[in-house]
From TrEMBL:
<feature type="domain" description="Isopropylmalate dehydrogenase-like">
    <location>
        <begin position="4"/>
        <end position="327"/>
    </location>
</feature>
<dbReference type="GO" id="GO:0046553">
    <property type="term" value="F:D-malate dehydrogenase (decarboxylating) (NAD+) activity"/>
</dbReference>
<keyword id="KW-0520">NAD</keyword>
<keyword id="KW-0460">Magnesium</keyword>
<dbReference type="GO" id="GO:0006099">
    <property type="term" value="P:tricarboxylic acid cycle"/>
</dbReference>
<dbReference type="GO" id="GO:0003862">
    <property type="term" value="F:3-isopropylmalate dehydrogenase activity"/>
</dbReference>
<dbReference type="GO" id="GO:0009098">
    <property type="term" value="P:L-leucine biosynthetic process"/>
</dbReference>
<dbReference type="GO" id="GO:0019298">
    <property type="term" value="P:coenzyme B biosynthetic process"/>
</dbReference>
<dbReference type="InterPro" id="IPR019818">
    <property type="entry name" value="IsoCit/isopropylmalate_DH_CS"/>
</dbReference>
<dbReference type="InterPro" id="IPR011828">
    <property type="entry name" value="LEU3_arc"/>
</dbReference>
<keyword id="KW-0560">Oxidoreductase</keyword>
<dbReference type="GO" id="GO:0004449">
    <property type="term" value="F:isocitrate dehydrogenase (NAD+) activity"/>
</dbReference>
<comment type="similarity">
    <text>Belongs to the isocitrate and isopropylmalate dehydrogenases family.</text>
</comment>
<dbReference type="InterPro" id="IPR024084">
    <property type="entry name" value="IsoPropMal-DH-like_dom"/>
</dbReference>
<dbReference type="Pfam" id="PF00180">
    <property type="entry name" value="Iso_dh"/>
</dbReference>
<keyword id="KW-0479">Metal-binding</keyword>
<dbReference type="GO" id="GO:0000287">
    <property type="term" value="F:magnesium ion binding"/>
</dbReference>
């Protein structure tokens, strides 16, 4: 049976990197049924709704969602969609590919970001003129769920020859109640995984360590806002946002998207790097248990990157579709 994929291109370069990556997905010969849906600034301007009900319905009834980027409406679109689909784990691999100008060539870890609460719960208020608040929500239930996910991921990676370690990043020294709980539950869950090494760092120091010793990390788990910030920095160590993919995973749904946004500074020029979105497609294929097709794309992409057949952000001369086409050609072979 065909995999039913809800495709949301969204705004800006989403309209370029998503169709280019769909060409690559189609080159695998895997049976897909693509269902297109709208979300983002453009549909908001037309209809007053950034995330139309119809889009939510299509996302809920698909096997997976393939998302590009939203613009200024990102909070009402992608943050909402992650919550509606209950995709509690935001998985962001940080990997050095050959041919890319990375900090080191042995960087290979995964950031697991809690996706449903923290400061992104959306509980903001203006309690008086000039006085605003945001409520940071950390619950034991969401902590247990995200830590189990991180430890299971570390176990899977250990089977593939990785170290088998989970690093927890928090700020429990200042956010004593919320991150106090976060850290406490981390070590409780760790007790169920005595085959996996554990460590924890304060998020500010962690931010330095991903630059000074990125090669020592395997799985890094953190809360929502910290994970958002940490993962863009991490992307910068392995070639930039044009290369950073992500998977949003829950018990019932999966949503796959590049880490970057709509990039208005380069939108419409055809120069956006499709790699992050192609790699998000690879994560989607693995989620759909299409392992062979996933490996094929990743290998083809590795060849294309190593050969310098890239968009200008990586020093190449190709446009978005040409680069994706180089990958698709190698997948078809
Ligand atoms: P951004 O990620 O769109 O761009 C940051 C920088 O990275 C820009 O210089 C951009 O040109 C570059 N870049 C991003 N993707 C690239 C690619 N594929 N190839 C080459 N260069 C790339 O973040 P920014 O500029 O902070 O936000 C722009 C808009 O995107 C905002 O409206 C923001 O709300 C939205 N946004 C949406 C997200 C989402 O839908 N998941 C995530 C982040 C931002
Ligand atoms: Mg972000």
């Amino acid at each position: 049976m065909a995999h039913k994929i809800c495709v949301i291109e969204g705004d800006g370069i989403g309209k370029e990197v998503v169709p280019a990556s769909i060409n690559v997905l189609e080159a695998t010969g895997v049976d897909f049924e693509f269902i297109y849906a709208e979300a983002g600034d453009e549909v908001f301007e037309k209809t007053g709704k950034a995330l139309p009900e119809e889009t939510v319905e299509k996302a809920l009834e698909s096997d997976a969602v393939f998302f590009g980027a939203a613009g200024e409406t990102a909070a009402d679109v992608i943050v909402k969609l992650r919550q509606i689909l209950k995709t509690y784990a935001n998985v962001r691999p940080v990997k050095a590919y050959k041919g890319i100008n990375c900090l080191r060539d042995d960087i290979d870890y995964v950031i697991v970001r809690e996706n449903t609460e923290g400061l992104y719960k959306g509980l903001e208020a203006e309690i008086d003129e000039g006085i605003t608040t945001a409520t940071r929500v950390i619950t034991r239930k969401a902590c247990e769920r995200i830590f189990k996910f991180a430890f299971e991921l570390a176990r899977d990676r250990k089977k593939q020859g990785k170290e088998g370690k989970v690093t927890c990043a928090h700020k429990a020294n200042v956010l004593k109640v919320t991150d106090g709980l976060f850290k406490k539950v981390f070590y409780e869950v760790a007790e169920e995984y005595d085959d996996i090494k554990v460590e924890d760092y304060y998020i500010d120091a962690m931010n330095m360590y991903i630059i000074t010793k990125p090669q020592v990390f395997d799985v890094v788990v953190t809360s929502n806002l910290f994970g958002d910030i940490l993962s863009d920095g991490a992307a910068g160590t392995v070639g930039g946002l044009g290369l950073a993919p992500s998977a949003n995973i829950g018990d019932e749904h999966g949503l796959f998207e590049p880490v970057h946004g709509s990039a208005p500074d380069i939108a419409g020029k055809g120069i956006a790097n499709p790699t992050a979105t192609i790699l998000s497609g690879v994560l989607m294929l693995r989620y759909l248990k299409e392992f062979e097709a996933a490996d094929k794309i990743e290998k083809a992409l590795e060849e294309v990157l190593a050969a310098g057949l890239t968009t200008p952000d990586l020093g190449g001369k190709l446009n978005t579709f040409q680069m994706a086409e180089e990958v698709a050609k190698r997948v078809e072979k």
